[in-house]
Amino acid sequence: MARKLVLITGASSGIGDAMARQFAAKGWDLALVARREDRLKDLAAEMKAKNGVDSLVIPADLSRPGEPERIFAEIEKAGRQIDGLVNNAGAGQPGYFTETGWADQARFLELMVTSYLKLIHLVLPGMEERKFGRIINVSSVSALLPVSPGHTRFSGTIYPGAKSLLIKVSQSLKAEMIGKNVHATAVCPGYTWSEFHDVNGARQSVSQLPSYWMLKAEDVAATAYDAVERNKAVSVPGAWYKFMTGLMRVLPDPVGEWLIAQQARRAMKRAQATQAAE
Ligand SMILES: NC(=O)c1ccc[n+]([C@@H]2O[C@H](COP(=O)([O-])OP(=O)(O)OC[C@H]3O[C@@H](n4cnc5c(N)ncnc54)[C@H](OP(=O)(O)O)[C@@H]3O)[C@@H](O)[C@H]2O)c1
To answer: Which CATH class is domain 5-277?
Structure first.
């Protein structure tokens, strides 16, 4: 019997790379997508040597409309069906709303929202028909916490909203797929070691955070894999973030907003002090 295949976007680094390692260790073949083809090829070779799994390497820029359809067609052309989907590719859109042109916001929405939804729309009918599917949408803890200006400055005004949409879509899919063995999970990581904060320019302020705020990409991937197997619609990796999101559910909104604003102010001050000392 052919091995199952999971399509992973943003597999060239961070959480996507860790997802590929997690699924390969469980015996899944991989379809690896990102812009940096060389990294995907290296990962594919490593997963073949370590786990004996096969990979399709599909370089794509998901901020361009039409890429999800091309990726899907390439996988079909290779004679494979898609049993799992990890929607993960992403980057922040630094800058407040009025500082950011619409062309950049539109690219952001294409990458962070439209490409995710299109890929789900393409793979879901086959999963439903075959009565097997596993979908992980990489959301963020920012979808569950009050918004701070420190965060939107680096990741963008739309970022928490885009990530919130993934939670609601995962919950809707879970409800629509009851009894069909098609599971959908939104995994909501907090700050995670990856290239994300190098790309969006937040490395300096993130490096000031206490170590218990930082997650490892492999732990995020392991939590997500376990959650989608258990058909959990929303999963928050890490004890600290479970505590934070639990606390925010019971605190009055203004208190939660004040706490998050204090934390953001402290991080900003520490970053400025470090910058001044350099
Ligand atoms: N790190 C965190 O603290 C954190 C927290 C919560 C949620 N997240 C979410 O986790 C996901 C993965 O981020 P990460 O932390 O692993 O960051 P990362 O190390 O920067 O990885 C981002 C991945 O997305 C790919 N990507 C970026 N733009 C793309 C595009 N236009 N087309 C195709 N692929 C693209 C990158 O590959 P190429 O550059 O090769 O294209 C890379 O593989 C994102 O959706 C992010 O919002 C991250």
So the answer is: alpha beta
